[in-house]
Structure formats: C-alpha cells, structure tokens
Amino acid sequence: MAKQIPFELVLEKAYQYKDEMTRFLRDMIAIPSESCDEKLVVLCIKKEMEKVGFDKVEIDPMGNILGYIGHGPHLIAMDAHIDTVGIGNIKNWTFDPYQGMENDEIIGGRGASDQEGGMASMVYAGKIIKDLGLEDQYTLLVTGTVQEEDCDGLCWQYIIEQSNIRPEFVISTEPTDCQIYRGQRGRMEIRVDVQGISCHGSAPERGDNAIFKMGPILNELQQLSGNLGNDDFLGKGTLTVSEIFFTSPSRCAVADSCAVSIDRRLTWGETWEGALDEIRALPAVQAAKAVVSMYDYSRPSYTGLVYPTECYFPTWKVEEDHITVKTLSKAYQGLFKKQPVVDKWTFSTNGVSIMGRHGIPVIGFGPGKEPEAHAPNEKTWKDHLVTCAAMYAAVPLAYLEELQK
C-alpha cells in the first residue's frame, strides 16, 4: 500500500517555501539563458537541487540537468525547459527583463512563466518530499531541459533515445494557469522555394521574377489555411507564413529566387506527409515548379553536442479517463478541495517528443499563463508557485494509489 498523502502538511510546507521559491526564480531570471546558452542557469539549478537535498544530480552530454529523489521502481518525471526566448524590443518592457520586478503577488522577468517558474516549484516539491518523508516505491526525476525554444522536444529525444530513460509518465510544467492540460496540436516548419532568372530592372520582361511567382502561392496558402483539419478537443489545424526571403543581384534587378517559411499547426489526425502534400497540390505551387520541404535542425547545444532532427513535432493527447488525468485530479482535489479544470495548450511543448514520438504519457500542470510566453513584461504569480509545488509533491503518491485500484 502507498503511504497516505498528508495533503494539509504538503500545502503548509509549500506556503512555507514561498519566499525561497521566489528568490530561486529571480536568481534564474537574472541569468540570460536563451537556447544554446543555458550553461550558467543549469549550474544555478544544480546548486539549488543539491542545497535542498536531491539524492542525485547530474548534467547529461547535451547539457540537460537531471535531479533524482528516491530509489523506487516506478519512475516518474517532471520537466521544465530552462531556456528562454530573447527580450525583443526593450522599449516594450516597463522593467529590466533580467533584473526583473516583484511585488506581493507577482514576479516579472524573462522566463517567469515560460518556463523557469515550473523549475522553481519542482525543486521545492523535492524539498517537501524530503521534509515529510514522502518517498515510497517511486523515483522522481526532475529535468531542466535545453533548446526547447529552438527545437521543442529535441532534449527529450536525446534523453529517451541516447540515455535510455523512459518514465512511466511525465508532468510538463509549462504554464497552464494551474489547470490540468492533456494535449496540444503538433507543428512543423515548412519551406517553399521558387526559382527565377535575374535581369536588369529596366527590362523585367527579359527575366523571370521569383517574387511575382510567389504571389499566387501566398494567396492559395491563405485560402488553404481556412480549410484544414479540426478536432473537437484540440481544435483546428492552422497555417501561417512566418518568413519571406529573396535573392537578387541588386535593387535594380529582377529577383532570381524567393522562399517562404510556414508555421503549420497539426490537429489530431493530420500528418506531416499530408501537410506537405496539400501544399504541393496547390495549382500555383505546381505552376511555379516550387519545391516544398521540411526544415531540419542541427544547432549545437551549449556543450557542443549536435543531435540533428527534422522540424516535425507530432500532435499528442491523453484521454479524459487516462491514469495521469485521474492522478492529477486526485492530488488537486485532495489539496484544494475542488474540481480542477482540464484543458489543452495552444502552443507546443516537449510533449511532442515524449508522447508524440515515443508514446510516453504526458500531462500538464504549471505556474504562469500561456499569454505571458514570449511577451514583454512577462510575469508569473507567487501563489502559482505554491500551488504547483504542493501538486508536484503530492502527485507521486497519488499515482501509486491509482495503480493499486
């Protein structure tokens, strides 16, 4: 039999560590940690994990930090990516994105919601487990993963495929506004290339303008975007043109190539092959003899390791009655005496690899809110840190109870 979960004590401890979580989150925010430049924030997290008493802390060859609590047979993982996007136009910020800001309720700074707040709550959930002796027939793995903003899921491809780590399930601590999230649309990064022939701009009829050839393709892509798949839970597939490139000998010449990037969000039932084929079938694409392809990613991590992959990030969801949903609902009800909201992410997470590629169930519960991600004046809520720390400490025992039913 699993130990009884002392819900009131867990919540009491989480409130007790509110100031420490706030301080730790601000420590992480103060360290710029864009994708492929996470070394210093990883070392900060390592120091904090060791301070609160994790049983083992290691950094893998890609640079992900892995902290372990317990030695039981059931491996449960919780994940936060600890890289951030850049700050964008600093004029849009009302405070320094790295010095951050703080009042009685909120913490501001780049990474506050997306997604270093999740790391702060996980580390102090580990301390709560240690303080209250909640170790049992499980091993808790807390991961701080790299390069997610550049290539979501790549870190967990490496962890699963190269380190041979396969948890029974993973909690993603991406921002959920302290709700339970059970899925997301997938995505892929597509490129369309059109070739032309340059000539002097004074006599454009001598050449073949690649930008003009791209024009009808853009119109048809816009039309296609309104006719994509739909799912009752995950919603519609979407398509947007996100970048445009060209080559030309000069501003006084006809462009001899043009290309666009497409951000394609895949709903349930859509495939990467189908997404490419529907673009290749467009009349303007065929008329221009355009080449439609998927991007690849091969940027080195901060350790120098290169782990190339194609830019396809599969759709995933767990069903409403899945054991992970039941587990988190049990913990939530026990702690907060009310029913949780169960929903989905709009954006993409490391779940694309963990469940989308490898079939390991993923469930979401995290501090912060989706609209804060990548926005100026990013913030999170101190009470969210407390709520999530309590949940993360209670979930392993709740899972063992569900397994015994």
TrEMBL record:
Q: Per its record, how is this protein called by name?
A: YgeY family selenium metabolism-linked hydrolase
Keyword Metal-binding present in the record's keywords: the answer is yes
Q: Where is the Peptidase M20 dimerisation domain?
A: 183-284
Q: Name one Pfam family in it.
A: Peptidase_M20
InterPro entries reported for this sequence: ArgE/DapE_CS, Bact_exopeptidase_dim_dom, Peptidase_M20, Peptidase_M20/DapE_YgeY, Peptidase_M20_dimer, Peptidase_M20A
GO molecular function, one example? Answer: metal ion binding
Write down the species: Serratia fonticola
Report if keyword Hydrolase is assigned: yes
Query: According to its UniProt record, which cofactors does this protein need?
Result: Zn(2+); Co(2+)
Q: Which CDD domains match?
A: M20_ArgE_DapE-like
**What keywords are annotated for this sequence in UniProt?**
Cobalt, Hydrolase, Metal-binding, Zinc
Which residue stretches, if any, does this entry annotate as coiled coil? none
What biological processes does GO assign it? Answer: L-arginine biosynthetic process
